[in-house]
Amino acid sequence: MNAKRVDKIATGVINVIAGIIVLILAGLLGYILVRGVPHISWHFLTSPAKAFQAGGGIGIQLFNSFYLLVLAMLISVPISLGAGIYLSEYAGKGRIVEIVRTAIEILSSLPSVVVGLFGFLLFVIQFKFGFSIISGALALTMFNLPLLTRSIEDSLEQVAFSQREAGLSLGLSRWETVIHVVIPEALPGIISGMILGAGRVFGEAAALIYTAGQSAPALNFADWNPFDIQSPLSPMRPAETLAVHIWKINAEGIQPDASAVSAGASAVLIIVVLLFNFLARRVGTFIYRKMTAA
């Protein structure tokens, strides 16, 4: 058998495997969207959930998901950005640095339920935050920090070394070169990694069951005082997110339309995660084109 025939067979096998994976993914997404999209309406997206009656929505859970996402990203992005810059630009090579990188890889592969149990023991019990948004945000930070750090480090390392030499040759300090040359060049990859990380956090459930809680008390949207426990912005209130709500409905939901609510909520979750992925590609491409045009 000659090399060309072997190459064609190998290429065909790879194409078949890729096609099977795409079909499985498309079938799964199509099944969820076909079952759930008909149940999505403005009333469904804005009304509160009901425990014993039909006609409930996901308004509070949807708000909780976005609020918790924003809080978690506000905590994790500055830390991961600093860690990524240090590992890429200042750490160099050595045994300690390799141990740190290995630890990051191990943490990024931890099951989310383990992160949730760790958050429960540390933030809920030890720090006495209770089941609250701040406990969930800190747990999501532990969950998202290794992935964001690795993504930022990879984006910075893809910048050509000649860019750094150019900045230093112009009289810039090392820090000024990183801020004004390296980070702007790596910005498309950094932002894409952040958006993809946000999508992963938005769909997380296991880590939040043990930290943010499984209850969604009514919120007073007329009161935006973060120190009021009933305020939507209070970080100390429990907050059932959309992913946790889906799990809870399927595990113990007793409302008459539990299947319809679960299907609609699942479709909303899938749509939002797909939008995060689409936005990551579009924003990264847009920033790259703007920078290259300038």
TrEMBL record:
Entry's transmembrane regions: 12-34, 66-87, 99-123, 129-148, 258-280
Pfam families: BPD_transp_1
UniProt KW Transmembrane helix keyword: yes
Domain ABC transmembrane type-1: 62-280
Bilayer disposition of the protein: Multi-pass membrane protein
Keyword flag Transmembrane: yes
An MF annotation (GO) of this entry: phosphate transmembrane transporter activity
Any one GO cellular component localisation term in the record: plasma membrane
Gene3D superfamilies xrefs: MetI-like
Localization, UniProt: Cell membrane
Swiss-Prot/TrEMBL GO biological process terms: phosphate ion transmembrane transport
Keyword annotations from UniProtKB, A to Z: Cell membrane, Membrane, Transmembrane, Transmembrane helix, Transport
Family listed: Belongs to the binding-protein-dependent transport system permease family. CysTW subfamily.
Protein name, per record: Phosphate transport system permease protein PstA
Native organism: Lacticaseibacillus pantheris DSM 15945 = JCM 12539 = NBRC 106106
